[in-house]
Structures are given as structure tokens and as C-alpha cells.
Design brief:
- By secondary structure, this protein is α/β, with parallel strands linked by helices.
- It has four helices and three strands.
- A three-stranded parallel β-sheet has the order 2-1-3, with helices on both faces.
- Helix 3 runs parallel beside helix 4.
- The longest helix is centred in the N-terminal third of the chain and has 14 residues.
């Protein structure tokens, strides 16, 4: 188990969540386990972050303004 946790400490995670309170709480918790936690409030912002950063893992909300989680995932799949 310890070796699995040490693997996470090498990863950067992108958290995409429009609810500010939930986003902040999740980011704080994830920062215990991951090397770096980057947050975005919608799919459009997340796409911009992906273009400028090496992201190892993504957690995304499904219902968000501007671009929902399904469209965001579709966009990622078409690009990578």
C-alpha cells in the first residue's frame, strides 16, 4: 500500500469542478496524496490548463457551465 501512495506523490492531477466550496475541499484532500493538484472551474478552463501542463490524471464533474464533463472528455479523447 505504501508503494502505491508513493507513486501518487509523483503525479499531477487536474480537478475540474464548478462548485467552489467542493472544489477547494477536494483539492485540499487530493494535495495530501498527489504531487500537484491543479483546479479548473469548467471544461474550457481545463482544456487551457491541459494545453500548458503535463497532467497525469483528471477528475471531472459531469454537470458544469460552458462545457460539461461529457463534452470535456470527448475533447480530450479527440486530441489524445
Amino acid at each position: 500500500m505504501t508503494s502505491n501512495l508513493s507513486l501518487l506523490k509523483k503525479l499531477t492531477i487536474l480537478l475540474v469542478e464548478d462548485d467552489e466550496e467542493l472544489r477547494d475541499g477536494l483539492a485540499q484532500t487530493l494535495s495530501i496524496f498527489f504531487y500537484k493538484v491543479i483546479v479548473a472551474k469548467n471544461g474550457i478552463e481545463a482544456i487551457e490548463i491541459l494545453a500548458q501542463n503535463k497532467i497525469d490524471m483528471i477528475i471531472t464533474d459531469y454537470v458544469m457551465p460552458l462545457m460539461d464533463g461529457e463534452e470535456f472528455c470527448w475533447h480530450i479523447r479527440t486530441k489524445d
